[in-house]
Amino acid sequence: MCLGVPGKVLEVYNDALEIAMGRISFGGIVKEVCLAYTPDAQVGEYVIVHAGFAISVVDEQEAMEVFSMLEQMEDLAELEIPQPA
Amino acid sequence: MRFVDEYRNGPDAQKFLHAIQELVTQPWTLMEICGGQTHTLIRSGIDKLLPPQVTLVHGPGCPVCVTPLEMIDRAIAIARRPEVIMTSFGDMLRVPGSSIDLLGVKAAGADVRMVYSPLDAVKLAQKHPDRQVVFFAVGFETTAPGNAMAVWQAQQLGLPNFSILCSHVLAPPAMEAILGSADSQVQGFLAAGHVCAVMGYWEYEPIAERYRTPIIVTGFEPLDLLHGIYMTLKALEEGRWGVENQYARAVTRAGNQPAQRLLSQVFQVVDRPWRGIGLIPNSGYRLRPEFAAFDAELRFDLGDIHVEESPLCIAGQIMQGLKKPLDCAAFGVLCTPERPLGAPMVSSEGTCAAYYQFARRVE
Ligand code: SF4
Predict the structure, then answer these.
(1) Contacts 24+ apart (CB under 8 A), B100-107
(2) Domain containing A48 — which CATH number?
(3) Could you tell me the CATH number of the domain that includes residue B158?
(4) Using the beta-carbon criterion (under 8 Å), do B3 and A77 form an inter-chain contact?
(5) Distance between Cα B167 and ligand 1 center (Å)
(6) pLDDT for the residue numbered A63
(7) Can you state the angle between helices B118-127 and B144-156, rounded to 10 degrees?
(8) Is B289 helix (H, G, I), strand (E, B) or coil?
(9) Of all helices (H) and strands (E), which one includes residue B333?
(10) Is the shortest distance between the CB of B346 and ligand 1 below 6 Å?
(11) How far is CA B331 from CA B42, B57, B86, B335, in A?
């Protein structure tokens, strides 16, 4: 129950109690999710959803960080390889 | 799927494993708190691919596993009442109480339903005004905002027939209990990314300082875990401690403010007993007095429920990182997912179930 799943915001609306809700696509499967805790989530953005509630908006720039770090690690590793004479 | 598949990339995982091998010069013991992370680590075999000096022990972060047996018996006693519709997340329905689980009670005629969101339970209460709808609210800080919203909604709607059986637990006090125990071998922590998405990670800073321990906020995919392990080992090798954030795509230091606001409006922090571990001070939530009308324990007279655990089960030691499932004589013999003796064998997030499912046997 604790696992959060990233999903894409397709639509944002308010329910009868004026609570923000959204239609979220999880790789094609669409569910209704409460967006009250991510009031800034925009259509097209990704949110992490737990048991029917979005708890954070995915920061796309941060998401790329790990891959650029891996690239750097690789560059360093290549530098360390002794060059054939 | 976006933000999932790219974190399961084999060649990238190899790069991390290589970097970890280069880094490690001495033995280290790390603990991941979250049962979801335990599951990914065992399923992907990361624990076996790490250098032999690195030991991963598995923490108490499976909400189903730490919910006291008495609580499950209370849920069962409530579910047996004819006026009640008992609701919960799927994994809670399979956890045996002292004699039966909620699905067993359902088979015997009780109205027990699985819901995807606690708001679905509120909708059920609106739809069935003649019934009492109870939501079995368990979990860490991740599920608490949803449960707080359900109670708040029920109050706004003036629903007289909705209540929750609340058994919420909090991660930082458990980490502190583990670090503070005399037998603790844990030198570095992977903190649960989704707990931190809600609560932020400022709460961990004093703990990291007090116990001079690196605590790395870590996500859930294999690459996240390898990255988090790498960051923890790097801090340990360099003699540093403190909190770092591997899971920055979803977590900020302050966490989710609207969620924290509603949590403190609806819940208050109390001491909670953890199954297998015992009472941990300030380690859980209960409803505030203003919301007492929605507290199932107050609504239904349940009497005194007290039960004994199987004496064979060493779940408490496993969840504190002192033992592993293979150290349990009952593992895979008397205790299997079909006939679990203890909670970590029941839930898909439980450590014993992860070991069993991915065929870890005594070698
Ligand atoms: S294998 Fe079963 S009996 Fe042993 S610790 Fe795990 S849950 Fe308890």
Answers:
(1) B100/B76, B101/B72, B101/B76, B102/B72, B102/B75, B102/B76, B102/B136, B105/B76, B105/B79, B105/B80, B106/B79
(2) 2.30.30.140
(3) 3.40.50.11740
(4) no
(5) 22
(6) 84
(7) 20
(8) helix
(9) none
(10) no
(11) 16, 17, 31, 5
Task: Look at residue A1 in the predicted model and tell me its pLDDT.
Answer: 57
B200: left (phi over 0), alpha (psi -120 to 50) or beta: left
Q: Test A62 with B18 for CB contact under 8 angstroms.
A: no
- Atom 3 (ligand 1) nearest CA: B313
What are the helix and strand counts (H, E) for chain B? 17, 11
Domain interval for residue A60: 5-80
Q: Is the complex ipTM higher than 0.90?
A: no
Instruction: Tally the domains of chain B.
Output: 3
pTM of the model: 0.90
For B291-313, write each residue's pLDDT tens digit.
999 999 999 988 777 787 788 89
B42 in any annotated domain: yes
- Asked whether the beta carbons of residue B2 and residue A70 sit closer than 8 angstroms, the reply is no
Q: Per residue, what are the HEC states of B129-160? A: CCCEEEEEEEECCCCHHHHHHHHHHHHHCCCC
Whole-number Å distance, alpha carbon A31 to ligand 1 midpoint, is: 36
* Shortest Cα distance, chain B CAs vs residue A60, angstroms: 7
Residue with tokens 């199987």: B310
Distance (Å, whole) CA B114 – CA B18: 44
Q: Residue B362 pLDDT more than 50? A: no
